[in-house]
Design goal:
By secondary structure, the chain is an alpha/beta fold. It has eight helices and nine strands. The longest helix is centred in the middle third of the chain and has 21 residues. The termini are close together.
Length: 269
């Protein structure tokens, strides 16, 4: 890694259904990269908690308890998907396990498939805008709830709408709602994630991108986390150096990691 304080705070092991390597293999990769800190954040899709994730969450915690990083700072985290669709599960998980870091994410709207499975090319533009309106509203509801530390991949739907299906979205129509999200994050003292996975995917940009990071900073945002969203050891740390430079371009001088659910600011060096 090019930066002394490079950290990866969003990635998944085989404790997630879509992860490939065991936690110890992800740890070894983080050590090889000489990251300053590494946080493992396996999935918990809250609306499927009882039938699919309850045992996985327990397993992930047990595996994280075994990890020792030596000079590498190792933190225990989780990505809570759709917490507003099963608040009981979300609050049970975060109350039961002493995580260092909790990502709040939204992969699908209530009673709708993950954006990954949607064929945006077959949708009317107004239908897509309506989906995004509902997406922003659920993010605002999540921030009002407040049971997480950093808001994951803000522009997640664009990974598939624009990246995979090539359907351009006029984001000017959504500026006001996104600004509402930024203001809500600042007021709630929550972080915004710079998810670098889009740099290695068809989307070709971070989630959110530079323009939105600048808007977040102008809204008073100071807390920003960085995550590769890697699902295999090879992708761990991917785009983190680029993400740190992007934050500098947006006017930030520091970024954030979490320890025992408390933010720690580090220089972009």
């Amino acid at each position: 890694m090019k930066h002394i304080y490079a950290c990866d705070s969003h990635n998944h092991s085989s404790c997630s259904p879509d992860g490939n390597q065991a936690p110890r293999e992800m740890l070894a990769r983080a050590q090889d990269l000489r990251l300053y800190a590494w946080t493992l954040t396996d999935h918990c899709e809250c609306q499927q908690y009882r039938e699919r994730y309850e045992e996985r969450v327990r397993l992930a915690w047990k595996e994280m308890e075994k990890l020792e990083g030596g000079s590498l700072r190792v933190y225990r985290g989780i990505e809570l998907g759709q917490p507003m669709q099963n608040l009981e599960a979300a609050e049970s998980v975060t109350g039961q396990f002493a995580y260092d870091f909790v990502i709040g994410s939204l992969h699908n709207l209530q009673d709708k498939p993950d954006f990954y499975y949607m064929d945006a090319a077959a949708m009317d533009p107004e239908e897509l805008h309506s989906l995004l309106d509902d997406y922003w509203q659920e993010l605002l509801d999540m921030i009002a709830w407040g049971g997480f530390d950093s808001l994951g991949h803000l522009t997640y739907p664009l990974r598939y709408i624009q990246g995979e299906h090539g359907v351009r979205v006029d984001m000017a129509r959504h500026t006001e709602r996104i600004d509402d999200i930024f203001s809500a994050l600042v007021k709630a003292d929550k972080a915004l994630e710079v998810n670098t996975s889009g740099l290695r995917q068809k989307l070709g940009e971070t989630m959110p991108n530079l323009e939105l990071l600048r808007r977040y900073r102008r809204s008073g945002g100071k807390l920003v986390t960085l995550g590769s969203d890697a699902h295999c050891a090879e992708d761990l740390g991917g785009g983190i150096d680029e993400g740190m430079e992007l934050l500098k371009a947006a006017g930030f001088t520091e970024f954030t990691i979490y320890e025992k659910r408390a933010p720690k600011q580090l220089p972009l060096e």
